[in-house]
Every structure is written in structure tokens, then in C-alpha cells.
Amino acid sequence: MRTPFIVGNWKMNLTLEEANDFLDQITNKLPDTNKVECAIAASPIFLESLTKYCKNSPLKSAAENCFYKDKGAYTGEVSPYSLSDMGINYVMLGHSERRKYFNETNKIVNKKVKAVLKNNMIPIICCDETMTKQKTDNHMDWVVNPVAESLNGVSSKNAQKIVIGYEPSWAIGTGKSASVSETQEACCLIRKTIAELYDEEVANQVRILYGGSVNDKNVKELMKQKDVDGVLAGTASLKPKEFLEIINY
Ligand code: 13P
Known about the structure:
Layout (H helix, E strand, L loop, with lengths): L4 E5 L6 H11 L10 E6 L1 H12 L4 E4 L16 H7 L3 E4 L2 H7 L3 H13 L3 E6 L2 H4 L7 H10 L5 H4 L3 E4 L13 H18 L2 H6 L1 E5 L7 H6 L5 E4 L6 H8 L2
Parallel strand pairs: 1-2, 1-8, 2-3, 3-4, 4-5, 5-6, 6-7, 7-8
Helix pairs in contact: 1-2, 5-7, 7-9
The protein binds 1,3-dihydroxyacetonephosphate (13P).
The site of 1,3-dihydroxyacetonephosphate has 14 residues, from strand 8.
């Protein structure tokens, strides 16, 4: 059984005071971890505070990105080794904003996936359907390629731990989420792709999330879909009240 997983992605928002206030406000209001696992993905400056908080809370911590090298002369980059040492649980990789503004490719994401796994954290690999949909009319290719390329050389033992985020960029921050049927179709396709790359057993373990204008109104229907194991919420994760409504859907 896959435990539902809900991730709030703060992106480049909030001050440290606002972030700490957010965490204070959700204390003792999180769902039972057997029912729903919850995480907050935050920028590096909040991660120390977040990991300290998570020690006494069912909340899990996530970084929004990292580099693929553990250490060295890479000014401004975030080390997966240091993130792991700090106690971070998950690292989001290949978010469409990383691909759009920082030229991240599937090849780079693949290196980062391996670095995160090597450091005993779990990657949340984000796939944006427009990446390939624009280039091909073949409906089936739009999500297959990013998933396959990001997982290139990843063992099946490691692959079953990963989380995949289906995040169509036209739905991100627009207030216009993908329909429930489109979402189920995409997540089902991602699962089939994983079954083809590995096997049914691995495909049944991998959690697949939807992200793009998720809110307290649409979360319930999305979570009912067979292949949708959770959601990634951006805008709606910035206010504790809204985030609480989503995680307690
Ligand atoms: P919004 O919820 O603001 O659309 O952002 C979604 C997202 O990018 C989650 O990673």
C-alpha cells in the first residue's frame, strides 16, 4: 500500500520569521502519518529550522533542489551530502521552474537523482508535460521520456523509493489545475512507464503526485484517483490554514 503524500513547496517565498510562524501554526494539526505523510519543501535558508522542527513532528523536510556533487568549488550550490547530514528527508529535482530558469535537463536531473539516493535521501522527480508535448504529437511520449531519462542507471531497489511529480507547467501558479481525468491519465501513464522500465512491483511502490494549482477545493477529488498518490501544493502551501485544509482533506 502506498501512503498518500502531500508536499507543500514554498519556492522562493516567506521570511524566516514567517516560515517559523507557519510551522508554529501547524503544530499538532497534522494527520496521522499512517494516513497521510506530509512534507514542506523549503529554500536552503530555512532548512536548519525546518529539520529541527521535524524532529518533534510527523512533518518531513524537503529541499527544493541540490547539486550533484557532494563537495568542492561550486560557489552558490547546495550539497546533497550537507543536506543529508542536516537530516533532510526529500529533495525535489527538475521542477519546471528549475528547467525553465536554470536550464536543467533530464541528464542533469538524472545526475542529481543519483546523488540524492547515494546520500540516503529520496528524490521527488518533477516532470512537466510541455517539455516533450510541444516537440511531438505522440501523446504517449510526453511523459515517458523525462521519467526514463531521469531514472537512467538507477537500480530497481532505489527506483521503488522515489516519488514522481506530474506538474504541467500551464497549471502551475495559474489557478487552472489539470482536470481530475487528465491527472489520472498522466499518473497512470507514468506508472506504466515505470513498469516498463523496471517491473510491476517497482511501479506499484512508486508514489506519483500531481502539482499545479492544487487547493482545498480540488484536493479531495484528486486524491481519490487510483494512480494519484498525493499532491504538491505551491501557492496554497504558503498559508498555514490552507495547507492544513489540504493535508486534512
Ligand atoms: P502552485 O500550487 O502555485 O500551482 O505550484 C505548484 C508547484 O509548483 C508545486 O511544486
